[in-house]
Each structure stands twice: as C-alpha cells, then as structure tokens.
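Thread title: Can someone regenerate the structure for this chain?

I was given the following input by a collaborator and told the matching structure tokens would be attached. They weren't. Posting the sequence so someone can regenerate them.
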Amino acid sequence: MSTAVLAGPIAYGICQTGCNALVVSCYAAAGFTFGTVVAAPAVPAVILGCNAGLGTCSAACATVALFAPTP
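Best answer:
Regenerated them for you:
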C-alpha cells in the first residue's frame, strides 16, 4: 500500500526563496536595495511593481507548493 506524501514546508521554503531572489533582482535592476525602501507615496512605480510581483509569487507558493505531492 502506498500513500502520497506532501512536500509541505520544504517545497514552500524553496519556492519562497525563488520569490525573494526575484524581488531582490527586480530592486537591483531599478537601482535600489531590497529591504531599504520605506513604503510611502513617493515610492517609484517600479518598486511597487516589484512588491506586487513578490506578493503574487508568494501567494502562488502558498497555494501550490504547500500541497505539491512528493514522489
């Protein structure tokens, strides 16, 4: 008898690491350092785009990676 195993936290952590690498690259391409920009009305639109991308990526990790079966 065989049962499916969920990847859970391991896959989620790997996925989140990928999301964070992308947002760091996005910030760097815009000439900023991730973690140093304070949310304010004067934040450049490109940074808001990076943040939105991070949110979308993180949400995808939460809905997919936590439930991904591990062979």
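The beta strands are 5-6, 69-70.
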